[in-house]
Amino acid sequence: xxxxxxxxxxxxxxxxxxxxxxxxxxxxxxxxxxxxxxxxxxxxxxxxxxxxxxxxxxxxxxxxxxxxxxxxxxxxxxxxxxxxxxxxxxxxxxxxxxxxxxxxxxxxxxxxxxxxxxxxxxxxxxxxxxxxxxxxxxxxxxxxxxxxxxxxxxxxxxxxxxxxxxxxxxxxxxxxxxxxxxxxxxxxxxxxxxxxxxxxxxxxxxxxxxxxxxxxxxxxxxxxxxxxxxxxxxxxxxxxxxxxxxxxxxxxxxxxxxxxxxxxxxxxxxxxxxxxxxxxxxxxxxxxxxxxxxxxxxxxxxxxxxxxxxxxxxxxxxxxxxxxxxxxxxxxxxxxxxxxxxxxxxxxxxxxxxxxxxxxxxxxxxxxxxxxxxxxxxxxxxxxxxxxxxxxxxxxxxxxxxxxxxxxxxxxxxxxxxxxxxxxxxxxxxxxxxxxxxxxxxxxxxxxxxxxxxxxxxxxxxxxxxxxxxxxxxx
Length: 475
Prior knowledge:
Blueprint: E1 3-9, H1 14-22, E2 31-38, E3 41-48, H2 54-58, E4 69-75, E5 82-84, E6 91-99, H3 102-111, H4 127-135, H5 141-151, E7 154-162, E8 165-169, E9 179-183, E10 186-190, E11 202-206, E12 212-216, E13 219-224, E14 232-233, H6 235-240, E15 246-247, E16 250-251, H7 252-265, E17 273-276, H8 282-292, E18 300-302, H9 316-326, E19 327-329, E20 338-343, H10 350-361, E21 366-371, H11 395-404, H12 411-414, H13 420-433, E22 437-438, H14 443-450, E23 457-458, H15 460-463
Parallel strand pairs: 14-23, 17-20, 20-21, 21-22
Antiparallel strand pairs: 1-4, 1-10, 2-3, 2-4, 5-6, 6-7, 7-8, 8-12, 9-10, 9-11, 12-13, 15-16, 18-19
């Protein structure tokens, strides 16, 4: 994934920019960058933050940065923000998303004979630079952003820091959020509304899909109107959104409570303790425990001061090591007990298998697992919310191949919780993880817990449905 934060202010903006960007570090910390505009002079710093906190890398830099407008980014891989010189003027740009047709767009640019791109490691093209090239094809920033959004397959939200102000543009189908905050003399654009309270901002509005706003210290101007169709990623509320944030006016934490409660209402198992697989399963587990009236506890404590998020390392063996070293079992809450865990999802299942075994090693009598979403069958092609390289990395899709000999066989049945094939898949995953029982959330209950209509949510990773609503045969 990745995250964006931008601010325009009548006073110096660097304090808000620094801390506002830092509040996005949970979204995938590979590189971080800040750019500030002081009059007509740009100041920029980019650092590799894969093995260090964002704040520690930029604390010295911000002492030299001054200006009334700035943008910051936590990036999956590419270095940004980029500084661009063009006929539109100089500007800085930061993006979040996935461009699936980048090779095609690059070929189209090369055919015009005037385009060129800087080289990235591995010989690829920086996707943010590719977006800038499409913006530069038009006569205005508004037209350029609209040109880029119309041609990108996947998703791309962006912030442009210009002498006119900050352009905040949400991706064409609104798969990722951009929210505007305000306080006296300043406006901010953010991915995570959790960045606002401690900086004194109040939510002003949620940017619509394909909408572009121009932020200045004096106000907000709409330069591209929002589209009618929205497909915001439902996984925001399930997993990678920060608990204190809201998207489309819906609280992440409250949604997770409702999600856990829905799991409890369809459950009959008797247990001694409900827990979350920390941290992302905690909200779901609290909702489950409150609904089921079963004690909530923490059989694991997570040690986070020196360990990154376990999905971040590129190598599976390192991811597994990080996951194991962070979780410290509390034997007194495990031994001789029947435990039920809520997890945000089961992606590969490799780390979870080790976690379950450690519970049995500490004396657990039973271990029940309740993922807060359906089995992941399709790899996401719109965002980078996991490190999966193939659909076969997913526990659900891999199990389909084991059962059928063909990973693509009968997928409509494997996504139907009422089918025999679905039951066989879940039981095979249960056996592989050594669980007493395994029961996934049903998609309808998840949609209800979020509180948006199905047609406004992207649920592709669970049902393979693109742009689906109640009229869809898969719904």
